[in-house]
Each structure stands twice: as structure tokens, then as C-alpha cells.
Specification:
The chain is an alpha+beta fold and 88 residues long. The protein has a domain at 1-12 and 29-66. The chain has helices at residues 18-25, 55-58; strands spanning 2-6, 13-17, 47-51. It has a 3-stranded antiparallel sheet with strand order 2-1-3. A hairpin with a 6-residue loop joins strand 1 and strand 2. It starts with a strand and ends in a 30-residue tail after the last helix.
């Protein structure tokens, strides 16, 4: 099954294989909910549709596929205080 996401604002159109989205988003994700915000204009107001394309329809079609998962670490700065030992 092919999932097509269209942004009405910037007109970006992206195709995904449903099996890839299940792998990335999990099986509980609802089909009618957008998988991601638009990567161009960042809106979440996108149109989601699905189809089972024929081999002829697949000719020359671009489909976005996952390559690898990247873990992103979040860092914070901490100010260190110098402690003085009690003299005595």
C-alpha cells in the first residue's frame, strides 16, 4: 500500500510505503493522521491518502524510504561551583 501525503500550503507531495511507516511509527498509528509535519513549511495540516498502485503507476515514482534511525542526545550546561574546605 502506498501512502501519499500532500501539503496544501506549499504543495509538497511525498509517497511512503505503508510497511515503512508501520516500522517507523508503530502499528498503533492511525492511517488518517499525518505521519509527520510537512518538511518544507512545518504545518501539520496535510492531506493523507492511500492507494494500491499498479506496476505501471509505479514506473518513475519517487518513494521516501527509511535509511537509519538516529538517536539525538540533548545536552545542558551546568555551572560548577568551587567549594572551599574549612580551615581548621
Amino acid at each position: 500500500m502506498l501512502i501519499t501525503v500532500k501539503c496544501p500550503g506549499c504543495r509538497r507531495r511525498v509517497n511512503y510505503w505503508a510497511a515503512d511507516l508501520v516500522q517507523v511509527l508503530g502499528p498503533e498509528h492511525q492511517l488518517h493522521e499525518p505521519p509527520f509535519p510537512c518538511s518544507r513549511c512545518r504545518t501539520r495540516e496535510v492531506d493523507v491518502s492511500w492507494s494500491i498502485p499498479s506496476p505501471r503507476d509505479l514506473q518513475g515514482l519517487t518513494v521516501r524510504r527509511p535509511v537509519r534511525q538516529v538517536v539525538k542526545w540533548i545536552w545542558r550546561d551546568e555551572r560548577l561551583e568551587l567549594w572551599q574546605k574549612d580551615s581548621g
